[in-house]
């Protein structure tokens, strides 16, 4: 059995994944724009240039996933999946660095999508190149699945799963490259949202005492919901975090001189396995009813789910692949395997739903994602490239 780490060390070029990431950032790929296809073509061309088999998987007209596969030369064996998304959120305002410049300043690569998640895509692309050099030593298959529409409705990953299930082949371990600071996340909390509509009674603001101000009622309800957060600590999970409620939108009223008879707000909900979505909905309902009871008013409100529930996902630490991943991190100077919750949600949930054991690990911090002057450490891009490469070589090499 060859020393796979030594083979990697002899071939590894730390500048190539950095240059790849810079080039990816320079291609605008805002979700549901032609830029998604522009980025997909660049990635496809890079992989094809290295004799890697590529499939252009159409999701909608003008939008496509990129699927790449590398077969080991030693026959059947495990399948490792590396997954990322092509699209980004819009550039937005407030930038002092060129959002599509791909500039590196003081060890950081700046630009929209640098952190979420073109640094990771570059590392996975380079990993595919590395694996392609050593196929005679490997079993099984490395599969790359880069999808569109992650920032919107997840149409890309849904299309890939639909086709994969029709032509089913086992996938033994998967990595989603969302930014975790190279910590290992065994899953994430679920996410949903509820829209709560409060009904009051309108009248002229000059006789406001004769009306029922829906905005005032809503504001009291929001305070009760905020206080309810303290009750969630008991449901916390060391690997995926605590359940949470966060009000992100409120709207009500028609004019300053009219007591508003309607007000609605939307509550972002983060769920964990020990606390169901129905239980959280009941908690929100109880908060609303409590305020109406305090004011001796009839409970005139509606609550409806405004975002479908993406359920929580968590895999056990003894899943095959995690030990290899941990050892691969340990072999990177300055890195050590740390398990930490991923605070957002991602497409690992979709992979989990079809029984593909999935972890989340990638360069960058979620705190930098979607921000003006988004950035990622180029040191972490290089480290991610080595980690993914070692994982793939070991997982497919029989270590």
Automatic annotation (TrEMBL):
GO biological process, one term: lysine biosynthetic process via diaminopimelate
Record has Hydrolase as a keyword: yes
GO molecular-function terms, A-Z: metal ion binding; succinyl-diaminopimelate desuccinylase activity
Keywords: Amino-acid biosynthesis, Cobalt, Hydrolase, Metal-binding, Zinc
Family: Belongs to the peptidase M20A family.
EC number: 3.5.1.18
UniProt catalytic activity: N-succinyl-(2S,6S)-2,6-diaminopimelate + H2O = (2S,6S)-2,6-diaminopimelate + succinate
Name the record gives this protein: Probable succinyl-diaminopimelate desuccinylase
Cited Pfam families: M20_dimer (PF07687), Peptidase_M20 (PF01546)
Keyword Hydrolase: yes
CC cofactor: Zn(2+); Co(2+)
InterPro entries noted in UniProt: ArgE/DapE (IPR010182), ArgE/DapE_CS (IPR001261), Bact_exopeptidase_dim_dom (IPR036264), Peptidase_M20 (IPR002933), Peptidase_M20_dimer (IPR011650), Peptidase_M20A (IPR050072)
Domain Peptidase M20 dimerisation: 187-291
Species this chain originates from: Atribacter laminatus
Pathway membership: Amino-acid biosynthesis; L-lysine biosynthesis via DAP pathway; LL-2,6-diaminopimelate from (S)-tetrahydrodipicolinate (succinylase route): step 3/3
């Amino acid at each position: 059995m060859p020393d796979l780490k030594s083979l990697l060390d002899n071939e590894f070029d730390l500048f190539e994944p950095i240059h790849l990431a810079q080039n990816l950032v320079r291609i605008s790929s805002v979700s549901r724009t032609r830029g998604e296809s522009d980025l997909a073509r660049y990635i496809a061309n890079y992989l094809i240039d290295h004799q890697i088999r590529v499939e252009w998987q159409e999701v909608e007209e003008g939008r496509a996933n990129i699927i790449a596969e590398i077969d080991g030369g030693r026959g059947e064996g495990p399948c490792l999946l590396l997954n990322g998304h092509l699209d980004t959120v819009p550039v937005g305002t407030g930038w002092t660095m060129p959002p599509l410049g791909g500039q590196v300043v003081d060890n950081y690569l700046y630009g929209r999508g640098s952190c979420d998640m073109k640094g990771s895509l570059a590392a996975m692309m380079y990993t595919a190149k590395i694996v392609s050099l050593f196929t005679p030593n490997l079993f099984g298959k490395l599969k790359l699945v880069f999808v569109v529409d992650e920032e919107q409705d997840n149409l890309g990953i849904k299309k890939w799963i639909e086709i994969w299930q029709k032509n089913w082949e086992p996938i033994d371990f998967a990595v989603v490259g969302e930014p975790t600071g190279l910590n290992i996340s065994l899953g994430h909390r679920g996410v949903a949202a509820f829209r709560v509509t409060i009904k009051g009674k309108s009248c002229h603001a000059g006789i406001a005492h004769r009306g029922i101000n829906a905005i005032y009622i809503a504001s009291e309800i929001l305070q009760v919901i905020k206080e309810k957060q303290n009750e969630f600590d008991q449901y916390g999970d060391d690997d995926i975090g605590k359940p949470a409620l966060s009000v992100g939108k409120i709207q009500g009223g028609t004019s300053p001189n009219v007591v508003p008879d309607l007000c609605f707000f939307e509550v972002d909900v983060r769920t964990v396995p020990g606390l169901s979505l129905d239980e959280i909905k009941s908690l929100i309902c109880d908060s609303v009813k409590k305020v109406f009871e305090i004011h001796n008013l009839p409970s005139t409100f509606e609550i409806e789910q405004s975002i479908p529930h993406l359920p929580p996902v968590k895999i056990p630490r003894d899943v095959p692949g995690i030990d290899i991943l941990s050892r691969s991190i340990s072999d990177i100077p300055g890195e050590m395997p740390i398990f930490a919750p991923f605070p957002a949600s991602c497409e690992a949930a979709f992979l989990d739903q079809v029984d593909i054991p999935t972890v989340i690990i990638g360069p960058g911090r979620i705190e930098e994602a979607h921000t003006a002057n988004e950035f990622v450490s180029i040191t972490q891009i290089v480290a991610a490239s080595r980690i993914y490469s070692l994982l793939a070589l070991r997982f497919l090499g029989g270590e």
